[in-house]
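Project outcomes to date are best conveyed with an example. Our students and postdoctoral researchers have been running inverse folding experiments weekly, and each run begins with a structure described purely in tokens. The record below, which covers 454 residues, was selected by the lab manager from last quarter's runs and is presented without edits.
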């Protein structure tokens, strides 16, 4: 499979360190509020990637963190008058509910930053020992960006330019250089009871160190693939590289993949801009989770910005309804016989292998739907479509409703068929109404009765 590797700005074939397993780390949510659907664009992208890797024959070992300590979570908990852990647990619970609504597969490791403080302290100590980090007067620890020669490799920064333009502001006097970032923040009264002991005094970890320490813990010092939204390239991921490679002396990550933003009126959807929708907002408006999921992964390539509109949700709804009709139809299709799906499966696979070319994959699917519908019109065999759909849906995750026709409905259809054969139209209509009352609608076609769930 080829992916666009942000590290080299080129398409590269994924060659895992321990094939067929791909080790994957994705930065998770900051759990101080509901995630918005912009956040979920990135999480749905990671889910599509993980499902595609599995479909293409890889095994996936996936870790994701919860940022459950930072300025926002601490402030939120204080405002709510709750302990930090209780406050963040609530939002973790909501996040998982939302992930289920969007049918996101659970990563193998879902881990809280606050449960890995010793690993972070150990990594910071390693960095201090190797002069990549220094302790400031107030007991905070900073990363010395100038000490890491590859700083800027991911974001393609011009270091010379950075230095020349740098000015140290008054409140940053504790840092040696403007680009240095906090690994450990010494306790201040605003932090209240949130603090951990460390060799440098009480305090809490910086945001960047949590991902370095936790990815190392679960995936090793070097792993295959690291993902997130494009806003994380700098400084977060750049800093992760500096920390991890500084501490281990080894390459941190081989492939980096970033999702472009979800926009509203050409602006990034974000909490701070106030232009966001949560998943719950959209559910309340009557949209199903799978319609939102479809909109987030199928209507634009993951590296293209996606403009959120109500029309795009409606278009997704229509596309899913076409799939539903097709599934209902092939589930009830009685003509048996072999027919090869190989060329469609190859096309679908081939599209995913090219940097997750979702529009080509979906075009192949809808061509296939058209072709098989036509074959069913003509009563030709279509092979084992339920099994093809299972394979494809393992990637799409559209969790369509079951279209198995219940025995009661089948018995009523049989009775109605007899009524019609004996020209008992009143009886036929009565049975039709009975079927309708059970939530199914009957249509009389040239080939007999067709039934569809309402
Ligand atoms: P946060 O909870 O802010 O740490 O963000 C969680 C994830 O959402 C990160 O991978 C961000 O890059 C991503 N993200 C934030 N805003 C957007 C957006 N408008 N579109 C796509 N991804 C986003
Ligand atoms: Zn991260």
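After processing, the design step wrote out the following sequence:
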């Amino acid at each position: 499979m080829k992916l666009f590797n942000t590290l080299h700005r080129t398409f590269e074939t994924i060659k895992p360190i321990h094939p067929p397993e791909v080790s994957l780390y994705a930065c998770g949510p900051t759990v101080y509020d509901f995630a918005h659907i912009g956040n979920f664009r990135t999480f749905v992208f990671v889910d599509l990637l993980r499902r595609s890797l599995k479909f293409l024959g890889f095994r996936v070992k996936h870790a994701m963190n919860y940022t459950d300590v930072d300025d926002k979570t601490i402030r939120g908990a204080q405002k709510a008058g709750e302990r930090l852990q209780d406050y963040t647990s609530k939002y973790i619970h909501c996040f998982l509910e939302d992930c289920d609504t969007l049918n996101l597969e659970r990563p193998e490791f879902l881990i809280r930053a606050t449960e890995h403080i010793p690993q972070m302290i150990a990594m910071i100590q390693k960095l201090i020992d190797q002069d990549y980090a220094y302790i400031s007067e107030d007991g905070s620890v900073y990363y010395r960006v100038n000490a890491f020669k590859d700083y800027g490799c991911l974001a393609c920064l011009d270091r010379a330019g950075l230095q020349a333009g740098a000015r140290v502001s008054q409140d940053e006097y504790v840092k040696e250089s403007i680009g240095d970032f906090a690994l450990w923040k010494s306790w201040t009264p605003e932090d209240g009871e949130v603090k951990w002991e460390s060799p440098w005094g009480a305090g809490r970890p910086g945001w960047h160190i949590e991902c370095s320490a936790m990815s190392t813990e679960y995936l090793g010092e070097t792993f295959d693939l690291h993902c997130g939204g494009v806003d994380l390239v700098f400084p977060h991921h750049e800093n992760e590289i500096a920390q991890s490679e500084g501490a281990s002396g080894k390459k941190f990550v081989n492939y980096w993949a970033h999702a472009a933003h979800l926009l509203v009126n050409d602006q990034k959807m974000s909490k701070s801009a106030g232009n966001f929708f949560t998943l719950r907002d959209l559910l309340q408006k009557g949209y199903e989770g799978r319609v939102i999921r479809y909109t987030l992964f199928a209507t634009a390539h993951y590296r293209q910005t996606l403009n959120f509109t109500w029309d795009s949700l409606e278009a997704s709804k229509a596309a899913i309804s076409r799939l539903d009709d097709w599934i209902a139809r092939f589930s009830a299709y009685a003509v048996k016989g072999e027919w090869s799906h190989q060329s469609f499966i190859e096309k679908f696979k081939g599209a995913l292998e090219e940097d997750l070319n979702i529009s080509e994959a979906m075009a192949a699917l809808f061509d296939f739907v058209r072709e098989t519908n036509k074959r069913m019109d003509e009563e030709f065999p279509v092979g084992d479509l339920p099994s093809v759909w299972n394979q494809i849906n393992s990637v799409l995750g559209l969790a369509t409703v079951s279209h198995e026709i219940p025995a009661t409905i089948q018995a009523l259809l049989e009775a109605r068929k007899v009524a019609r054969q004996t020209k008992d139209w009143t009886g036929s209509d009565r049975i039709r109404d009975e079927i309708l009352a059970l939530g199914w609608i009957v249509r009389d076609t040239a080939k007999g009765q067709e039934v569809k769930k309402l």
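Residues 164-171 have pLDDT under 50 and may be disordered. The two ends are 40 Å apart (CA to CA). The training component of this project remains on track.
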